[in-house]
Task: inverse folding
């Protein structure tokens, strides 16, 4: 089950409060400003800074 568009519309990056987007493969939520990807586990976005991974430059 994909992440609901309404949920994506209200979520922001917990670090910078900036806009986020769903990754192309649907496995995470990306903040391009912070260069972080937050995982999605069991169709639930894990929006914790400690759980995010850095996106290589």
Result:
């Amino acid at each position: 089950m994909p992440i609901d568009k309404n949920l994506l519309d209200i979520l922001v990056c917990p670090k910078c409060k900036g806009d986020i987007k769903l990754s192309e493969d649907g496995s995470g939520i990306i903040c391009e400003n912070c260069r972080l990807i937050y995982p999605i586990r069991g169709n639930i976005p894990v929006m914790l800074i400690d759980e995010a991974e850095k996106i290589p430059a």
Summary: The first strand starts at residue 21 and ends at 22. The chain has one domain: 5-54. Helices lie at 5-10. Residues 5-10 form the longest helix (6 residues).
